[in-house]
Amino acid sequence: MGSPEDLPTKRTARVLFCLYREHLVALHGFIKKTRATPDEDLATARKRQKELER
């Protein structure tokens, strides 16, 4: 549900996506600071996905 991109500062970014009515929608983007995706970032993306589906 996402794709990493290397930034010039050697940090890694993540963007969480979903498919909605045949469109690719970016739900949330953030800079990775640890190996695991923080629960708060996952919760934000899930909340936005639910808002789309209403």
Write the layout of secondary structure elements.
Elements: E1 2-6, E2 12-20, E3 23-32, H1 39-52
Antiparallel strand pairs: 1-2, 2-3
Rg of Cα set: 12 Å
Helix content: 25-40%
- Compressed to H and E, one letter per element, the order equals EEEH
Low-confidence stretches: none
Q: So how many helices?
A: 1
Largest sheet strand order = 1-2-3
Molecular structure report:
The chain is an alpha+beta fold. It has one domain. The protein is 26% helix and 44% strand. A 3-stranded antiparallel β-sheet has the order 1-2-3, with helices on one face. The chain is flat. The mean pLDDT is 87.
Please supply descriptive tags for the structure shown above.
alpha+beta, flat, 1 helix, 26% helix, 54 residues, three-stranded antiparallel sheet
